[in-house]
Amino acid sequence: MKKFMKAMMAGALTVAMTMGAAACGTTTPTAAPTEGPTEGPATEAPTEGPAAGDELIKVGIINNDPNESGYRTANDRDMKATFTEENGYEASFYYSLKNEDQIAAAQKFIQDEVDYLLISAAGTSGWDGVLEQAQKAGIKVILFDRTIDADESLYEASIVSDMAKEGQQAVDWLASQNLSEYKIVHIQGVMGSSAQIGRSGALDDKVAKEANWSIVAQQTADWSEETAQQIVQSVIDSGETFNVIYAENDNMAKGAVAALDKANISHGVGKDVIVIGFDCNTWALQELLAGNWNYDGQCNPFQAAYIDDIIKNGATQKVVIMDEKGFDATTITQEDVDNYGI
Amino acid sequence: MSTNEKAISSSNSVKSFFAKIVRNQLFIPIAALLLLIIFNFAADIILHADTSFFKIVLEPSSTGNMVLSGNLITIIDNASELALLAIGMTLVTSASGGQDISVGATIAIAGSTILRIVKGYSPDISGAKFAAVIIGAFLLSVIVSALFGAFNGALVAYFKIQPMVATLILFTAGRSIAAWINNNDNISINDTRFGYFGNFIPGIPVPTPVFITIICIIVIALVLKFTNLRLYSQAVGINASSSRLNGINPKTIKLLSFIILGICVAVCGLIKVSRTSSITYAVIANNIEMDAILAVALGGNNLGGGKFNMTASVLGAYVIQFLTTTLFRMKVSSSAISAYKAIVVILLIIMSSPFIRKWLADRKNRRLAAKAGSNVRKEVA
To answer: CA B363, CA B369: separation in Å to the nearest integer?
Structure first.
């Protein structure tokens, strides 16, 4: 029994640890809404780069594990595609979901005398020391996707997306549908993640303000489609009616729709239930195109073009908020799916 | 004197009848099930003045088929994966005296394997071809999961590593492996036929996972009835060295139990990815290992190995889903649901702890002793 308890506790500990990792993994996917990398201002630069035989710009890129999420995979691919020798860069990559490993990697990059340090930090604290070292060594730091708790003077720029704006855009779109009554099933991401806070905040504010907006159910599905399906199924089984599904990412929207399909509730353009998702996965945009969903908020993982622009043309502002689109099923085109799907 | 004796014996027989029921392994899961049913019934009457929780309706779904729906159907449907895992987990527990905590991660691997195969086929291939693709994908995932099960089993059987520690490896690495299988793509299958295994087959009003589970339960019941699997795994679990002296190879039995669990995992993987036709590597079947272990414990099985009762474990799985659905219905936050389950685990563990058992046994002995003493005194008088 003792042994068992010990093992149980060890098991619980690891569960807690991996859950933590998974949570920060999924938090990020929501962070980046903008145009595709091709549209970024920086992509023209490559022509002058290596062709002239100039010295390559050395960049050390510290990112989270690309396996963490679809968002991160797209983000990493974008980075690799932008910071190439053809574009005038000599890039080294380091991946970890652990803050302290990332800080150690940053120290190593400083010793290697890179010109730029690009950081998507796993945690917000503990970076001051290493950033000061970088400053002394004359290395410029650019943060992408995630901010950290450090003095602004320690970095050149921070390129982030505004989750609250993403949520606000979706809520504004929903308001523009002019329904006589909004009965919303709100499926949240991992509680406390920046995506959840931003996307929930906008909806909560609106519901508090408007008399004809009400929340039928508000539950976290931890970014999981199965949990979202169970939540919506329990709402349906309890006999409550609703006409909006506000899911804070595409996968949860997909799970919710699976429950609707099972229970014979029509959804999509001109149907009984409006379906809202986030992140702009390619398959989700295809659902929009087919009219099965109504709205998808973009989450842009393509910061590389912005960084490239800052390196080559200098930073104009400390915090760069990327453009974020929202797609309406009635206006989306195949081109949008190809350009913005991740 | 004689009337006295009769009274004692009849009251004893009533007592022993109840004692028998209470001692029966099925008592805990059935009692828990009854408790939940009564609770929901009462909650319905008080809160809604009806019995809507137990209402089952037959109505057409969005695809135009007649389907059954209602809380009870949801419970039986959603408990399928857990019931399948409980089967494998019971055998692993019995033979190895430990639990496999990697089942959630290996479900991710199995599901990812299936999607890897299926995603390559366009939705317009004919029914027969599509069936062949699904069968092929499923068989591959069975092989993959069985191999991962064998990996766990080999660590436990041959390297004598504690099961929970051995399976910790895949628990940690499994989801990354699942992501790697599909290059971490966020996959979604458009073909509605892929959803048949987790939802409904057109024309059949009962969710498919229910049938899959029933088939698996029948198979395992037949295996336990017509082979020596039960005897051997119990023998190995109770005393590995003496079973070896009796000609059973404990290593083979332990390995076999993990392979069987691997096959159960593959079936769960198919149901899981079919439910939503997609996968999120980090959270698919999240924490299901804890529920599966809880199902075995709820079934009154000794988590230290040895004797087991398969029916009780499977019932335990349905109790857990009943609890989950009840909590969802009470609008308990889904992140708090695991806390409620933790309370159940704590109660179970305390109830089965040696300390409480000893205390109960002592109390019973004292009562018997007192009764015997009073009888003796009477006789003397």
So the answer is: 10
**Quick one: tokens of B287?**
């924490």
Hey, how many other C-beta atoms are within 10 angstroms of the C-beta on A128? 13
Q: Note whether B285 contacts A: Cβ–Cβ < 8 A.
A: yes
Beta carbons of B190 and A14 less than 8 Å apart: no
| Contact partners, residue A48, CB within 8 Å, separation at least 6 | A54, A88
- The answer as to whether A16 is a domain residue is no
Half-sphere exposure (CA, 13 Å, Cβ side) for A134?
A: 29
pLDDT in tens, B350-377: 776 667 777 877 887 888 888 777 776 6
Which tens digit of pLDDT belongs to each residue from A156-198? 899 988 888 999 999 999 999 999 999 999 999 888 877 888 8
Which structure tokens are listed for B342? 């933790």
- Residue A212 φ then ψ, to 5°: -95, 10
CA distance A25 to chain B (A): 8
| Structural domain of B237 | 75-313
A318 assigned to some structural domain = yes
Report the candidate in B108, B91, B110, B109 with the shortest Cα–Cα distance to residue B100.
B91
In the numeric block, the tokens 């924490």 are attached to B287
CATH code for the domain of A35: 3.40.50.2300
* From B176, B185, B325, residue closest to A234, measured CB to CB: B325
Chain A residues lying within 8 Å of B118, measured CB to CB: none
For residue A320, the 8-state DSSP code is E
Q: What is the pLDDT of residue A33?
A: 39
* pLDDT tens column, B249-267: 999 999 999 999 999 999 9
Whether the predicted interface score ipTM is above 0.95: no
Q: Is A321 helix (H, G, I), strand (E, B) or coil?
A: strand
Q: Which residue has the tokens 């506790």?
A: A9
Q: Which residues contact A264 (CB under 8 A, 6 or more apart)?
A: B59, B60, B61, B62, B67
| Number of domains observed in the structure of chain B | 1
Using DSSP, how many helices (H) and how many strands (E) does chain A show? Answer: 11, 12
Mean pLDDT across chain A:
83
Cβ partners under 8 Å of residue A337, min gap 6: A282, A285, A286, A288, A289
Range of the domain at A147: 22-161+305-324
Enclosing H/E stretch for B370: helix B354-380
Q: A276: which strand partners?
A: A246, A295
Closest alpha carbon within chain B to A251: B280
